[in-house]
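Input sequence (659 aa), recorded before submission:
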Amino acid sequence: MSIEIGQIKKRITWISAAVYAFFLIILVRLFYVALVMGPELRAQSQERVIERRPIEAKRGDIYSADGKTLATTKPVYNIHFDALTVDATVFNTEVAELSEKLAILNPKRNAAHWERYLRSERDKNHRYIPLATDLNYSQLQRIKTYPILSRGAFQGGLIIQEKLERIQMATDVRSRTIGRDKDGAQAGLEGYYSNYLQGKPGNRLMQKITGNDWKPLDDPQAVEPVDGFDLFTTIDTRIQDVAQQSLLAQLKKYDADHGTAVVMEVATGRIVAMANLGRNEDSVYSELRNYAVWERTEPGSTIKLLSAMALLETGVADTSDKVNTENGVVTIYGKKVRDSRKGGYGTISLRKAFEVSSNTGIVKLVQEHFEQNPDDYVDFLYSRGFHETTGITIKGESAPNIPKPNDDRWSGISLPWMAYGYGVEFTPLQLLTIYNAVANNGTMVKPQIVERIMDHGRIVEDFETAILNPAICSQEVVKKLQVMLEGAVQNGTAKNIYDQRVPVAGKTGTCQLNYWRGGKDYQSSFAGYFPANDPQFSCIVVINKPDYYKGYYGNIVAGPVFKAIADEVYSQLPEPPTTLNTEELIAARTTTVGGDRFEQAFQKNFLPSLNGLDARSATRILEGQGLGVSLVGTGRVVRQEPALGTPLHQCSTVKLVLR
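Predicted structure, token format:
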């Protein structure tokens, strides 16, 4: 019995030993697989992952009105190499020649280094060897001709990965106006028109290679992506360039923090230029924010246009009504309103108060007529739609702020402060829309920055001029406001930019920022239109925080930018048709030299006759020869000094009498 028990125990011991040995072998194998074979097995398992992956659609392009590309989507290519698909004989025969080509395309390695690298990667059984990144289309076509790779994907191991890269072209209207649409953030045109631009993605089978890299597979059921639509904007890059450069020069001159300039077609509301520049940490100016659309501030004296409009339209005052500016200071509920001119202007008319931008004059008139019923003044602004956004198709427009008498913060000084530009807030574009309406004989149109949407030559949507308010005031009041705006340039605060050759109308603005804290931060602005006698374009320039000691008034900081833009745009306007009477035509034809009025005269070094020409045409001709011009009167040239036939070297300045 004891022998049987002993045999049983022996058997159990052997069986247990065998079991333990079996488990030990399994454990050792598991460790070996996990630690030694693991990386390779994981890589092999990833290679076997095949999914239907999306293919990104080409985003639509954005163009300027003059046909230049503002933003486009460019395909770029990453190239990888699957060395294991290449026949060993082919690889060994051609790898040296391939390495020489790669050294030229991607010189981070020389030819010898490339050959060692490719051989080493093949020996390691790697199937996703990076060769080049971010190639353009022509470089892609070139690499397809390289030894080995010219055999294609299945025999040459060529792996091509296409990705789409959004590029904003090197123009003067970029990141904030064109905008962005990525990483959950939308701005500008890219954000507003994302549904049109983004297109429809496709899909195809892809094999996972490593990490987030996927290799496209041959897939007969692949769905090709559909390209996005193209946007054609109203931006004119020629006008944009002068707006950008003029604004930049003035920002640098006055060491300002930031600024904006917007130019709009009067009749249509088409924005032909929108410049936005801010100073970054390196004191370099670039497009940091779209200040024209986003930045809402107290405008200062440019708001006096609305105050004058309310006074005139409600019939409580006329342009000839007198007001005593009280030595340039008026006190309201213990708060002082001051004129920029010490001592004030004495007793002057409403028109004169507007032209010279008298704070005390405008405030006293508004206070006198609306103090008992401030709702009448505020309701006037609301009834015209001045409290609403313009609706421009750019993301990020801030709403105006016009307080009401029933607001908690309304006080006795709210109305007079509003009258000269404090306590109310507008964006530059919103103020420009109002000034544009005055230039447009009272019709307020919606600012427009996209003209049409296209799909491969087919019009998807065409944007017409939209009217926000057909009449912000009566025609009688419009005419009076136009005269006052012209007077502000000819006889008032902006007479420093007056130029008979380019008639403009507008209003200066100088606003103290953060005035409740004191300090010397100001905002300088100028809003208006040109030509004053036949408005074609309106424009606003706003410059924030110029160096106080260099200058801060709107006429000297913002005004010159407006003038530079007006001069350039005016020079591009088509000349009006000639409407000379019979006597002028005879004079123009008979007072010539050598049968040609200008070219032959200049070739012979004589001054030609300029009779019958308008001021702009005559000035352009003379200045083209380096001659100075002095104009007297308006209309067309009836007399010139020196006279016809005078040698050019005796004509440093030509005086033209117009009638």
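Checked by second reader. Residues 2-48 form one domain.
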